[in-house]
């Protein structure tokens, strides 16, 4: 919430993978559905560029490393299935997450949106986030373990919005009513992106086609609750069992794939055949 905090950088965790806001009247239940932590507030801290970078590197650890042949992005299985969301993103800055780089060295091209200058480790800035998340980061084992930060402002202060009005949910309602005059038009910020994953090859397009048709599934946990726990890799070898299983799902004769060795080859040919027969 940059508008109310006036901070240089904002951090926010994604606690609902299925967040949505349909066209039409916005109701309180929509706000509650999209931000599910009822007591969450806005607190502003004074931090350094190094503190921000360390926090962002920890956040980027939510993603698995990529390798040659990966055509989908995937998430760390343990963090993905955790009771508490650790999937954090940042506003007020531009940055890239390079998944080919090792854990702790993935954040690249980190710049301030306000000044368009690179953020230095010695820079002093303000960070807006939820106090509960900050406490977790400062606790034992956290990305900012043992570090102390000056608290500049809290939305729950009596001279701000108070204990009730200062929650993120209520601030969102106030913002929509008083600032946006009840009309919200979404805008994609394009302030961050993932690099190091093939998203443009013919193999990637074939995988997208097969997933959209329900033939190929994104890897998920055994109970099916969490998806994207592993990347689809088109350079991996494919087994006869996999060819038969996917061919049957597509209602295609598996015998025409006898000499195929890799998943990429198979996915491309299967996609072409399904398009030919409009399956």
TrEMBL record:
- Quote the EC number: 3.1.3.5
Superkingdom is Bacteria
**What InterPro entries does the entry give?**
5'-Nucleotdase_C (IPR008334), 5'-Nucleotdase_C_sf (IPR036907), 5_nucleotidase/apyrase (IPR006179)
**Which terms does the UniProt entry file under GO BP?**
nucleotide catabolic process
One Pfam family named in its UniProt record: 5_nucleotid_C
Q: Which GO terms describe its molecular function?
A: 5'-nucleotidase activity
Location of the 5'-Nucleotidase C-terminal domain: 4-135
Q: Which UniProt keywords apply?
A: Hydrolase
Recorded GO cellular component terms are: outer membrane-bounded periplasmic space
Q: What is this protein called?
A: Trifunctional nucleotide phosphoesterase protein YfkN
Q: Provide the species name.
A: Bacillus thuringiensis
What is the gene name?
yfkN1_1
